# Entry
Amino acid sequence: MEKNKKKLWGGRFSKPTNSSVEHFTESLSVDIRLYKYDIKGSIAHAEMLAKTGIISRKDSARIIGGLKKIGADIEKCDFRFSVSDEDIHMAIERALTGKIGEAAKKLHTARSRNDQVALDMKMYLKDAAKQIISLIGVLQEKVAEKAYVYADTVFPGMTHMQLAMPVTFGHYLLSFIYMFERDKERMEGLFSRLDEMPLGSCALAGTSLPIDRDYVAKKLGFSKVSRNSMDAVADRDYIIEMLSAISLTGIHLSRLCEDMVFYSSSAVNIISLPEDFCTGSSMMPNKKNPDVAEIVRGKAGGMIGNLVSVLVTMKALPMTYNRDMQEDKKPLFDSIDTISSCLEIMAGLVRGIELNKKVLNELLGSNFGLLATDLAEYLVTKGVPFRDAHHIIGKMMLSEVASRNPLEITIEELRGFSDKFESDSLAVLDIKNSVANKKSQGGTAPVGVKKEIRKWLKKSG
# Structure
């Protein structure tokens, strides 16, 4: 019984908590990272309690001073945590009682751990979202810089993992910049949901005490307060949204990494990855393995799994707060840490990639099929319906001509398939002309690609 007297909620219980239950139910080992937000929220709460006359200004000042000292102790690693504290909120309140005595018992007036943890999580996620947005921006900058270097360099565009049409490598890289831009937009879109302050909702019903929630919201940088106390403590949508946004970023990184692995493989070898971002084999001395790209690609699965974990945890939970919801933090923190490290490492990898131009030029020069669509569009300019033009070039692909270097093909050979081919058709067989002519908005023409890259570089600068 004496043990439960030390619990801040122990008055109701006549038996001490089983030690195995303490270890099983604690979340302190996970939510310890919330300490700054818990202290910040508690200081604002103490200021409000004094402002409204619920506690004295003297007690409020003692509470605030004690909280600041606890924060400093934690920063200096001079704070003793105990599993019996259960979570970071109780650990701080227990320490506060030890520092300032009876006044500490007034801090939890007009709040519950239910609305307290929701507040801490929202403040934490605001900062986490800003950090992720910043890391995405750095990666975009590195991609744009590399894209500018190769804005004119022809590269084989693929669909279905088959050679399709020529693009520039700069245009290819720009595609990922736009993926990452959507990722930033999703993160930015979270702020309207994160910007609603839940503190003051208490356990689930609000309070009869004359609190000032707007005052606390303003102190903590929230533009509004929650409008329903039950929803405020039961809501975890913002966590699911964060995990969803992170998962999409992870998917985009995994697609970039898959391409890096494929294009750098010895069988293809048109991209060279920086050696300091690769590893070797413990057995085969010839190997240069794209381990960074493979690991980032693999980590996408964990981020998706974390999203599914919280979705399943929240599915069909009764209103309002349930202890199941404690399980939201571990997958959330893991995904935030994972995506942050992935974005940081990929910025370094992208900065060091190079094209193997000799191998690339040999590939481009031996693939007549890359220009098939250009030839079909040429016939369209001569009045041939596209479906007929498509059929004509399809027949050409079955002939001996398709195995030749496009620059070696003669006008006579082309006219063997259609008398619509004229002398100007030979220019279509130059792969550089192919990309230069793709001037439609958003196309791969170098003039447009460079314009887009400059926009991104200016934006990042």
Remarks:
- The chain has 19 helices and six strands.
- The first strand starts at residue 154 and ends at 159.
